[in-house]
Amino acid sequence: MMKGSQQQQQRPLLIPSPRTPGKEELPYTPVNASIDASIPVSSMPVKPYSDSQIEMSGDFVRNPSSQSIQSKSSSGYSIKEVSFREGSDVIVNPVVRYGSSGSNPGRYGSRGASSGGFGSSYKEIKDEDARLVYVNDPVRTNEKRFRFAGNSIRTSKYSFLTFLPRNLFEQFHRIAYIYFLVIAILNQLPQLAVFGRGASVLPLALVLFVTAVKDAYEDFRRHRSDRIENNRVASVLLNGEFGDKKWKDICVGEVVKISGNQTLPCDMVLLSTSDATGVSYVQTTNLDGESNLKTRYAKQETQAKASLLGEIGGLLIKCEKPNRNVYGFQANMEIDGKRISLGPSNIILRGCELKNTDWVIGVVVYAGKETKAMLNNAGAPSKRSRLEKHMNKEIIILSLFLVALCTVVSLSHGVWLRRHREELYLMQFYRKYDYSEPEVEKYEYYGLGMEIFFVFLMSVIVFQVMIPISLYISVELVRIGQAYFMIRDDRMFDKSTNSRFQCRALNINEDLGQIKYVFSDKTGTLTENKMEFQCASVGGVDYDNGKAISTEDGQTGYSVQVDGMVLRPKMTVKVDQDLLHLSKMKHTDEGKHLCDFLVALAACNTIVPLTVETSDSAVNLIEYQGESPDEQALVYAAASYGFMLVERSSGHIVIDIQGERPRFNVLGLHEFDSDRKRMSVIIGCPDQTVKVFVKGADTTMFKVIDKSLNLNMVKATESHLHAYSSKGLRTLVIGMREMSTSEFEQWQSSYDSASTALMGRANLLRKVANNVENNLRLLGASGIEDKLQQGVPEAIESLRTAGIKVWVLTGDKQETAISIGYSSKLLTSKMTQIVINNNSKDSCRKSLDDALQLYKKLSNVSNSNDAGHVAGTNQLALIIDGTSLVYILETELEEKLFELSSKCTAVLCCRVAPLQKAGIVALIKNRTDDMTLAIGDGANDVSMIQKADVGIGISGQEGRQAVMASDFSMGQFRFLVPLLLIHGHWNYQRISYMILYNFYRNVVLVFVLFWYVLFTGFTLTTAITDWSSMLYSIIYTSLPTIVVGILDKDLGRSTLLKYPQLYGAGQRGESYNGKLFWYTILDTLWQSITAFFIPLIAYWDSTVGVSALGDLWILAIVILVNVHLAMDVVRWYTITHIAVWGSILATFICVMVIDAWPFLPGYWAFFMIAKTKLFWVCLLGIVVAGLVPRFVVKVFVQHCKPSDIQIARVAEKFGHLQGDAETEMNPIFDLPQRTATT
């Protein structure tokens, strides 16, 4: 069934290229062939179909260029809509609408687009920009001056020799690492040596080592994958026969044969296929994530030659140089003295898989790293979390603080030296002369200035721990742990696709807890993108009427019997009994009209029927494969009414029409493009007539319908379309007309001329299509339902309650988008709708001004009624179309749009192009400090996903392009609720606390060292041993912060879901801000004073040595910071106890081990001082004195001014909210507006 016709005749092939999602021009790549006009129409050679997607009224291909029809008031909703008149009171009207009512084509994209220019794929290839490929002559192709890349690929970053230098180079991109490297180098100098040389290098070396091990393991996996890939085997033409050759040895110019279900080893131009007409099918899942089949073609001129291996040589291909555009290809081929053009439909790319085709033969044009797949082998752009950016500011403050401390010490040291300058000759450490020998010698004393400078550098070394190097690696480990628990969360497991949540970027986990704006696609994101045919308008009659359109009998499905086998569509569609009855009355005018309508549904598409076996050997299913779910729904609908597409080849289709199986020749096909917004197919019918069937968006179809034929039918159909759109259905208009022989010959001549043009081919083919798509007879319209995903209304409600503004950016028409807006609870009956549809910049300016004026009047009314709570009583919803955005984005009107949209509760953008989606995100991102999140499922959402602070891809029906460009991916929109309200909240709280705690624990140690310096003549000697100073951030205090950062939960899941307002803590930055930072520094100052001065006072008159005091100080600090952490832990687990109390125990063990080595300073000091009761009393006194003030302040604040989190935590503890605790939470809609920054 999948084979082409075996008739060996020349066919005029119209071969369109694959549609590029989100592109303005859709190229066509025809074959240069001719047709004999004398051939009867019934036996006329046919043209293959394309694999394009067809636009429904929802603008499935996402590139709107025209404005939608003005919507009428919907009676289905009770909408509060307000308008105003100059000098009058506010009055209630059906809708606030700005803009004209016409349907005028406009630009699309934020900058507009020209539709008439030459696409780059159709310009003449200059010699300097060309690659010459001699078919089956790799030696000549790869001669020395033209040597091209081999097919060996390498995705690994390092080799054995380059790993160490390159990995270190990459790691030292972090400024903090360079800082610690400089510190370690300074400590190696004799004049500046403060710590042991080995001990000073240990922290940095450990961090570098751990990171290097992680990078090495990741690269090892890449090496292993590369080795497997390079050693795969393909069939290559060698000495006139095909033989096996490893992928890595394949060269440009070689001829390769690929069998069915095999993967392509390189980019190849098709020369021949197993189908006589040169058609083949590939699956590009590995390339762009699309799982549907795509069609590729071999030129008829090479189809016959390639079957004769001896004649396959002698061909020359001139193609463009390697580039990343997987949807474009520009080349031409010289064969038998003439030149023919090649396009995207003639090339199959590395990574694609051959399907439903026995074999193909092609010539390699790009290999290895020059293939399009490898050129596109890049991950999502790197993003940095907001907390990390803020953390850098605090690190700069701490650096300045460090410089200040070092300056104080060095200047004080200079004053001390000057004050004791007469004593320096004999004073220990500063003797200028050595009198121990007969000849007096000078010590290395460098003078007052240099001594001050050296002390400054030594101070930097001693106080280096002020900048917490361990914070970086701790945060990375915590993020990995957080990602693990997000991935394992069953609340975000999609059973329908058996897919879990994926963390593709580990560096922005905490940003999930601060989102203020969510920008969502509609189709496939809010909806399932599983299209289901619901209703139809045929001949001006609505076969729906708002009632159930099927009975149980109607759901059994249509089936036919062929050679004893029963064929039945894989999917059943509900049918209207009246329409089903009419389809059998072919002798009536209404029946003939319906027959044409159903033939159009079955024929005007690019669907490929596949036979699927079932458990019943007597029954087979027909599965319709295609890129567009809309087309699949229409073909299944036609099959349910007895018009079953059962066979398609490159030149004909067979439709089983209620038991009869006529064959229709596909004479030509014009695929969809974003200017025409429709597609057409020219069919040679069994009755010797030629008909052109056209389907497309209503905005363009009614321009080419001959309304004089039946004006009443046109008006009725328009009314039905509006009703369908109001229900949220995706609509499509179908028309047709018969072509005379002369018209067909004229079309064929024009087409052949356009298809052989080497420049401007797409523009010429578009004109040919426009000429044939006119004066159509209206057949009817269809309505397809794209159902909401489960839980979408509840998810949007929860997000809105959490203070998150949800904007929907869709390519659908306005009525459809508004309907989905209501069903998803994005729009409510309490909202005042502001609709902006304009065709010029001036009208857009006036509409925005009027809307802002309306907002002010509504505000005044609300102020007089309820003290100004506008958000509570007059919520605004902005609805704007893509045509208007063309004149607003990237102009001075952006500021007005931002001002208006920021006052709206919901924003719905219709008919928007992919670049406009990114422009809307930039509108908010560039003017506020609010965090943005974009979520989508298709290639048209990639720019929006990458533009937002956080990008989420939905692994849905449109492939995995969005997933591959995202930071996180999941299966359903509703998973946003647990992701943001639970994991986002936890991640933000944990990382925020962790950063502040790391600052605290390091600064407290620095202050203790500083106080000691003040009492030792500013000599920078240290009581704490070198090893204890180095191990402080590595062993003594690091593990508890990591465990708490991964596991601690300030609130439970049920509480966070029950009270979404709690999410506002992250939006307001309650857990990490400048005020908390300075409070932490003040607390640190007090704790350092208690930790240093209590032992100093206690042992002031004793004979205890400095090393013993140093052990007491380091133990006191470790106990202090760990008990401090324990006071803040909310959820205790066994591992938390082990980490906190185990770290204290580990510190005691390490101090004892260090003091047990005779060659280290402070030998046996700990064992001497630990025998005394005073030692233990000091430890207890330090902890109590250091933490009591913090405890008192904490209790006072929680009692007198509790936060939302603290209120909810009490409610959790006692099982319910006591009193008016719920009403005490910060109101979401009264949050202060952030100052816009431009």
UniProtKB/TrEMBL annotation:
> Which organism is this protein's natural source?
Salvia divinorum (Maria pastora)
Query: What general EC class does the enzyme of this chain belong to?
Result: translocase
Pfam families in the record, alphabetically? Cation_ATPase, PhoLip_ATPase_C, PhoLip_ATPase_N
The P-type ATPase N-terminal domain covers 133-198
Q: Which InterPro entries does this one have?
A: ATPase_P-typ_cyto_dom_N, ATPase_P-typ_P_site, ATPase_P-typ_TM_dom_sf, ATPase_P-typ_transduc_dom_A_sf, HAD-like_sf, HAD_sf, P-type_ATPase_IV, P-type_ATPase_N
Per UniProt, ATP binds at D521, K522, T523, E631, F672, K695, R730, T810, G811, D812, R911, K917, N940, D941
Q: Which reaction does it catalyse?
A: ATP + H2O + phospholipidSide 1 = ADP + phosphate + phospholipidSide 2
Q: Which cofactor does it need?
A: Mg(2+)
| EC assignment | 7.6.2.1
Q: Where in the cell is it found?
A: Membrane
Where along the chain is the active site annotated?
A: D521
Where does the P-type ATPase C-terminal domain start and stop, copy by copy? 963-1202
Q: Which UniProt keywords apply?
A: ATP-binding, Ligase, Magnesium, Membrane, Metal-binding, Nucleotide-binding, Translocase, Transmembrane, Transmembrane helix
Lineage, top ranks: Eukaryota, Viridiplantae, Streptophyta, Embryophyta, Tracheophyta
Q: Which family does it belong to?
A: Belongs to the cation transport ATPase (P-type) (TC 3.A.3) family. Type IV subfamily.
Q: Could you tell me which Gene3D superfamilies the record lists for this protein? A: Calcium-transporting ATPase, cytoplasmic domain N (3.40.1110.10), Calcium-transporting ATPase, cytoplasmic transduction domain A (2.70.150.10), HAD superfamily/HAD-like (3.40.50.1000)
Give the CC-aspect GO terms: membrane
Task: Give the protein's recorded name.
Answer: Phospholipid-transporting ATPase
Region of interest (Disordered), ranges: 1-31
Membrane-crossing residue ranges in chain numbering: 175-193, 199-217, 395-417, 452-478, 999-1024, 1030-1047, 1076-1100, 1106-1125, 1132-1154, 1174-1193
For bias type Polar residues, the affected ranges are: 1-11
For molecular function, the Gene Ontology terms on record are: ATP binding; ATPase-coupled intramembrane lipid transporter activity; ligase activity; magnesium ion binding
Residue sites binding Mg(2+) per the record: D521, T523, D937, D941
PANTHER family this protein is in?
Answer: PHOSPHOLIPID-TRANSPORTING ATPASE 1, PROBABLE PHOSPHOLIPID-TRANSPORTING ATPASE
